[in-house]
Specification:
73% helix, globular
Length: 267
């Protein structure tokens, strides 16, 4: 069957909140994210240090139980991505469930394929970030220690704040806020198409959220409270009413806080 130019528009008619496929899809998202949070909580007890100290400890040979440093870092980033980012994909998954209603026999498989593609996109970033963290982490930690107090945290905040106003951020955020428009432009049939769309949407989400994810270095990548706060910000800027204003306000606040920390270090 040839791929249609657009998804089946009629299939996105309002569906009951307790529609079984929607319940299963949201339940899967909740369970996967919850499992990632539990795993992070358990692993966090074995990781020493906080703030930038965990990076130095990891690169000095401290790894997750049963893993080498690279594998441990990759696993940590993958778990954080699932815990923080999968819930923000729930609106897109919900739209896909409703679009796939006409594929009754294999609908669950297609929805799982889309979600798997989304997670795979973040897993790819996790592999890159974890590997780079271990390979260059020692040098970065040494360089950071030589800078004036507050410069590293201030620089991260300033970068994340300014990125909120870039055209790339706005384009990616617009796509994340309008999943139906994304599917109308990038629809693909079949399980392979579902995975491809998940990968594509995940890449857009990475373009939207990478700078905010980088702020985890401020309080340590295993600080669950900080992770929850950042995850909430990323979820709200994609889904909350007036989300555009929230993004601008958070960008201004982060940029001002970063500049203040840098100026404090200079003085």
């Amino acid at each position: 069957m040839s791929r249609p130019a657009n998804p089946p528009v009629g299939a996105v008619a309002p569906a009951p909140i307790l529609d079984r496929p929607r319940v299963l899809a949201f339940g899967g998202v909740v369970l996967a994210a919850l499992a990632a949070w539990v795993a992070l909580a358990l692993l966090g007890e074995a990781r020493p240090g906080s703030g930038l100290a965990w990076l130095s400890a990891l690169c000095g040979g401290v790894a997750l139980p049963g893993s080498d440093a690279v594998a441990g870092a990759m696993a940590m980033w993958a778990l954080m991505s699932v815990a923080m980012m999968l819930p923000s994909a729930a609106p897109a998954i919900d739209i896909y469930v409703r679009l796939a209603r006409r594929i009754e026999a294999r609908r669950a498989v297609h929805v799982a394929g889309f979600a798997a593609g989304y997670v795979l996109a973040w897993a790819t970033l996790s592999a890159i970030a974890g590997t780079a963290q271990v390979l260059v982490g020692r040098e970065l930690a040494t360089s950071a220690a030589a800078l004036p107090h507050g410069w590293v945290a201030g620089g991260l905040l300033l970068l994340a704040g300014l990125y909120q106003f870039t055209p790339l951020k706005q384009a990616c955020l617009t796509a994340c806020r309008n999943p139906l428009a994304f599917f109308m432009s990038h629809w693909r049939e079949g399980i392979g198409g579902a995975v491809r769309m998940g990968l594509h949407h995940g890449a857009i989400c990475i373009g939207c959220c990478w700078a905010l994810m980088g702020l985890m270095f401020l309080s340590g990548a295993m600080n669950l409270a900080w992770m929850a706060a950042l995850g909430l910000v990323m979820l709200l800027e994609k889904t909350a009413p007036g989300a555009a204003y929230l993004g601008w306000l958070s960008g201004i606040a982060m940029a001002l806080a970063g500049a203040a920390l840098i100026m404090t270090g200079i003085n």
